Amino acid sequence: AAATAGSGAGSGAAGSPEATGGSSGGGGWRRPHGPLQRYYGPSTAEAAEAPPDPTDINGPHFDPEVFMTKVRSECPLGQLLAREAALSREIRALDSDMQTLLYENYNKFISATDTIRKMKVDFRHMEAEMDDLAANMAAISASSARVSAALQDRHRRGAQLAGVQALLRKLQALVEVPGRLRRWAGTEPARALRCHARARAVLRHYRHLPSFRAIEDESHAIMAELAQRLRTRLRCETLDPKELTECVEMLLQLEEPAEELSEEFLSQAGARLEAELAALEAELPAADPSGTATTPPPPASDILDFVDRGSSAFVGTLCQLAGSYRALFAARERVDRYLRALQTFFLGCLGDVRQALAAPRPPGKEGPGLPDLLATLAASVLGQLKAVLAYVQLFTARDVAFASLPYFKGEFCVTAVREGLVVAFVRWLCRTARGFADGPAERGAPAAPPALLLLLARLCLDYENSTISYILTLTDEQFPPQDSGPAVTPGPALCAEARAAAQRLLDHYVQVQGAAVAQMLRKSVETRDWLGTVEPRNVRAVMKRVVEDITAIDVQVGQLFEEGVRRAQSSDSSRRAFSVYSSSRAPGRYAPSYTPSAPMDTHLLSNIQKLFSERIDIFSPVEFNKVSVLTGIIKISLKTLLECVRLRTLGRFGLQQVQVDGHYLQLYLWRFASDERVVQGLLDEVAASAAHRCLDPVPMEHSVVELICERG
User: Fold this and answer.
1) Are 61 and 41 in contact (CB under 8 A)?
2) Would you call 445 helix, strand, or coil by DSSP?
3) pLDDT digit string (tens) for 86-121?
4) Is the dihedral of CA 65, 66, 67, 72 positive or negative?
5) Which of 391, 403, 421, 452 shows its CA 20 to 30 Å from the CA of 506?
6) Structural domain boundaries of the chain?
7) Half-sphere exposure (CA, 13 Å, Cβ side) for 651?
């Protein structure tokens, strides 16, 4: 029975260690092919040919429970004890072989362990170096953005420095005014008057400062001495009409009383004409006291010479003096002078505004805001215009003899005051303001700051809304026109000119600010290696700077213009997925097809989609509200980003960086635009161009993009 059981057990475990152990005759079971090779199992080909056997202790499908169940059911107790002894010997043999193998290869194991440990350390070092490299690349990107920002700051500071240098030159010129006046007052009085006229407005404006007050007082003393010398010269009987006219004109420029100068002019002119007339009468023969002469005797000189001297001397002097008097003291001349004074005053106020905008401010101390500067400028100009109208109104006073003459009053009120002064000044103001947007900047001259463009646009818009109608109404009340008088410029025509100037200034402001933001984006795209860039881990610094600048522009525009109307926003505007395939070609494995055998031309799909999408006009005129202005700036900036991306070739990580940057811009810029679809559409086109220009277009997971943007 034992033999039968033994043979049964041996046949039941064919190919197993039991059969081999039974034939060994109790001498211990040895595997001929090496214990380690048998331990690690048969080759792949043998395992594929042999059926799975859970009782094969050396097989890959060995199951201890099945093996023990089979042995207990088929083997008697004696064979089980023999098998236990054989397994013990086999285990000891395996341990001995393992120890032998270990002793033989101990140095190799130690070297391998050291090598693995060193490889792990080197790998950690490589990871650290890769992290450092990524950090360095991010730092380089941030540095490039900072360099770009520094260049812009340098440009702005250069403009401020140019303004400061111009101011210093003006201050130096003001300091030198008294010396120049003293040098020119005796030899070139006309030149001294021109110098004093240029400096007078500035000295009056800053008279509250002690240094400027000292310069003004010294200048006034010099000009008072000049006025005294001119009055002394005016009383000289040897002056010819031209010298008399020049002397009176210089006294008028010195703001001497026009009434006194008019009387002195007429007195001197009358004395000269009487002297010339007496000289002519002296050449006539004496009258016959008896009265018996039938014919008058001829004059002492030839009659032709007498007539020639009379016409060239007396009549010529009379005509010259009459023309000079009309040029010096007529009402129209005074109105023209007031117009020039208004223009000079406005330019001075504008210079003060530019100086306030460019003046450096210490940290923690804010200067006047744009609303305060606008209110000061508008109030100053309007107050000066009212003062000028009050001066001009003296010509229509009741005690003035010629004011009641119909040919004077009708023409003076309409042609001189309304059209020649008020309307001319408003048109000149609009042209001057618009010149900051239309006229090319002079070589070396600093460009107008964007804040000045915005302020002038608001000023012209206020003129169109209310100021022009108020000024014209005030003028018509003080200088009522005649019913049959000349035609006047209608108020709506002036308002249209003011609105056109405001529109041009606001459009130019959008272009200037959009170009500044676009310059940052263009530099950031052109200076980056999009093929060799590392995997994006943060938002580029230039994108953060763009959002900061747009936010600052939003605050600046909001000081002067209303909010405007926004299109109704979707509930997930800030969380909308930014896909690189939203409007672009996808990789071939994602592209759909119209027929099973014809894959879709994704370029054609993109073009068809653009046909049905709303066209975005980049340089369209903006409306007079904050939302429209910010939308125009954002369109210019993103359009520049799109055109720059179209010219670059990108790798996989470059595409993913564009994806991260675009999603970051989408998170923050949509709230500034009038329609979020404008921002999304332009960013989709940026992503489409990036995917089209990418050599390995594999996008980043959107959850990772969101995590990077939220962390940034």
Assistant:
1) no
2) coil
3) 888 888 888 888 888 777 777 777 777 777 888 877
4) positive
5) 421
6) 60-171, 179-283+303-318, 330-359+367-504, 528-564+620-711
7) 10
